[in-house]
Write a structure and sequence with these properties.
- This protein is α/β, with parallel strands linked by helices and 427 residues long.
- The protein has 18 helices and 14 strands.
- The strands form three sheets. The chain has a nine-stranded mixed beta sheet, sandwiched between helices. A three-stranded antiparallel beta sheet has the order 11-13-12. Strands 10-14 form a two-stranded antiparallel ribbon.
- The protein starts with a helix and ends with a strand.
């Protein structure tokens, strides 16, 4: 009996030790994740860096936390941050040398910006810790709720500021975009399309702009469904102010997101950047009205580069608001005359669940996803794919061959490759 009891006690102690180890590991993992968020928040304040440069820092050092620890370790003492001390010049040059040696993928201007920005770390940390009090949170690329489809694009944002929630990855997402100065006809169509799509389980994303964007969000809200707005400013700013009621309702039932930090004003340069997020989150993009040169066409072009399906509503050839849509149809976009055209593509049969094809790109390896995300239904030349991915030509050709054999892409003459369009089945 004594030996059995001793054995039981040993097992109990062993389980307790394992439990404590697990808790320690979880706490360490959570601590590391929080540090990644904190460092990413600090880096995201540097507009000069951009999403790709920050991702390269992460990939080079294995984590942003490691980059922080090296950059702020004792040998780079506080003297070079505060700007005081006899050895300031020497220490500053040491940090410069470190950045120059370890980060050759960053330009000299970017390196110097990071060097100067070290002095702002504690201020940024304090701002970061106040996000939840201001009704916002910072979702980073490795979080479970980060949009899966967005990770597939080359220049995905490393972090998103969010009010409300993010789209459900198990449901399809459609971006409905168009002209700010739209016609009443276009506004009605955008609202109708979005309402019907939302009623059938499709999540609507747009840019909360005047005109078509606002009508798209309004249609989803009329259906009693969540909708998601991607902003070219901080998520605590409603721009334009005319959409404040939509902005408020969206924050309660759906979500508002941006890669730009709180209080960032709506600058013109921000909107083309936010467009890649709108297209990147979507399975398909519907353009309702667009001029020959417009932000909506930028979104559509980005969507084509990302492998998203494009739909355009046709219009009169003499109507300047229809020039962009008619041009997209000429280029090969689907002609959409009703929401059912989009639902049929998605494989949604009124209130039935979306079934994803067995060859869904989520099953691809990292490099295969990178190459696949650069392809379009209109074939691209191998040189263009190599330039976009940054991979070597032999690597690129090998991956394209694997994708071709797997039924993901097709190859036409003279090294042109395109994406196959049968990635969805009807439910």
């Amino acid at each position: 009996m004594g030996k059995e009891r001793e054995k039981e006690n040993n097992e109990k102690e062993k389980n307790e030790v394992e439990k404590k180890k697990t808790e320690v590991e979880k706490n360490r993992e959570e601590k590391n994740r929080n540090q990644e968020r904190e460092v990413l928040y600090w880096l995201s304040k540097l507009v000069i860096l951009g999403a790709v440069s920050i991702r390269k820092i992460f990939e080079h050092f294995g984590s942003l936390g490691v980059f922080y620890e090296i950059l702020f370790e004792k040998r780079f003492s506080s003297a070079c941050i505060s700007g005081i001390g006899a050895n300031n010049i020497e220490e500053k040059s040491t940090v410069e040398a470190f950045l120059e040696k370890e980060c050759p993928f960053l330009s000299k201007r970017q390196q110097m910006a990071i060097l100067s920005h070290r002095a702002n770390y504690e201020t940024c940390k304090a701002e970061f810790e106040q996000l939840s009090e201001r009704g916002m949170r910072f979702v980073i690329w490795c979080d479970e709720e980060y949009p899966e489809k967005l990770r597939e694009i080359y220049d995905y944002p490393m972090g998103l500021f969010v009010r409300g929630k993010l789209p459900n990855s198990r449901q399809p997402v459609v971006a409905v975009v168009g002209a700010r100065g739209c016609s009443e006809y276009g506004e009605q169509l955008a609202e109708r399309f979005s309402m019907t799509l939302a009623e059938n389980g499709v999540q609507i994303v747009s840019g909360l702009a005047s005109g078509i964007d606002g009508a798209s969000h309004r249609g989803a809200l009329r259906a009693g469904k969540p909708t998601f707005g991607v902003l070219g400013c901080g998520v605590n700013i409603c721009y334009p102010s005319e959409n404040f009621r939509i902005y408020e309702e969206m924050g309660r039932t759906g979500g508002i997101l941006s890669e730009f930090g709180p209080d960032t004003p709506p600058k013109a340069m921000n909107f083309p950047m936010r467009n890649r997020i709108i297209s990147g989150m979507a399975d398909a993009i519907v353009v309702v009205e667009a001029r020959a040169k417009s932000g909506s066409l930028i979104t559509a072009d980005l969507g084509m580069e990302q492998g998203r399906e494009i739909f355009a509503l046709p219009g009169r050839v003499t109507d300047h608001l229809s020039e962009g849509c008619n041009h997209l149809i000429q280029q090969g976009a689907h002609l959409a005359t009703s929401p059912e055209d989009v639902l049929e593509f998605l494989g949604v049969k009124y209130r039935k669940k979306l079934i994803i094809h067995e060859k869904n790109v989520n099953g691809l390896a990292k490099k295969e996803k990178l190459v696949y995300s650069c392809l379009d239904f209109k074939p691209k030349h191998l040189d263009q794919i190599v330039a976009q991915t940054g991979l070597g030509i032999s690597d690129c050709m090998g991956i394209l061959l694997e994708l071709e054999l797997g039924g993901y892409v097709f190859r036409s003459a003279n090294h042109y490759y395109g994406k196959k369009s049968d990635m969805w089945e009807n439910g």
